[in-house]
């Protein structure tokens, strides 16, 4: 009996994880049609880039975190909001390559995008950087950012 206890616990945890991923919908199921597609899928954009550490050397530890925020600013209203957020743990060395996914429907023509990156060491800000992101025909252009020690 004791032999099967770890396997039973593992199986129970896996079942709970799978059940927690299930989604429910109160809407009636949509009809399938070959002639038209009524449901428009949102396009996912990807911002790729690299972050390097500025002046001097910094050797990250397993506890350091690189916090990346993609934000938009409406040029008419001045409203600033976050589009996407990513945290990178277990940094090996700089420069750090990253990919941030975002919903292209979140960006309008009147909005500008910026990237704010913060290096957290023991939950304290060690370095920070900000970059204005350029747009191209396919979405947001690739970027590189230099962190400046705080």
Architecture overview:
The structure is a single chain. With 150 residues, this protein is mainly beta. The protein is built from one helix and nine strands; from the N terminus they run αβββββββββ. The protein has one helix at 5-20, and strands spanning 44-53, 65-74, 80-89, 96-103, 111-121, 124-133, 135-136, 139-140, 143-149. Strands 3-2-5-6-9-1-4 form a seven-stranded mixed sheet, with no helix packed on it. A hairpin with a 2-residue loop joins β5 and β6. The radius of gyration is 21 Å and the shape is globular. The model has no long low-confidence stretch (mean pLDDT 80).
Which strand order do you get reading across the main beta sheet? 3-2-5-6-9-1-4
Summed up, the helix count is 1
Compute the number of strand runs: 9
Which regions are unreliable across 5 or more consecutive residues at pLDDT < 50? none
Q: Nearest-angstrom radius of gyration?
A: 21 Å
Mean pLDDT: 80
Return the string of H and E elements: HEEEEEEEEE
Distance between the termini: 57 Å
Structural class: mainly beta
Q: Describe the biggest sheet?
A: 7 strands, mixed
Q: Tell me roughly what share of residues is in helical segments.
A: 10-25%
Strand content range: over 45%
Shape: globular
């Amino acid at each position: 009996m004791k032999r099967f206890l770890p396997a039973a616990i593992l199986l129970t945890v896996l079942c709970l994880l799978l059940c927690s991923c299930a989604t429910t919908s109160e809407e009636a199921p949509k009809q399938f049609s070959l002639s038209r597609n009524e449901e428009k899928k949102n396009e996912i954009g990807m911002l790729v880039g690299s972050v390097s550490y500025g002046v001097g050397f910094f050797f990250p530890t397993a506890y350091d975190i690189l916090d990346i925020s993609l934000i938009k600013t409406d040029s008419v209203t001045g409203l600033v909001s976050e589009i996407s957020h990513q945290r990178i743990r277990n940094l090996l060395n700089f420069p750090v390559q990253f990919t941030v996914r975002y919903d292209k429907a979140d960006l309008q023509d009147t909005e500008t995008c910026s990237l704010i990156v913060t290096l957290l060491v023991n939950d304290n800000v060690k370095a920070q950087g900000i970059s204005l992101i350029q747009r191209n025909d396919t979405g947001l252009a690739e970027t590189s950012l230099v962190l400046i020690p705080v």
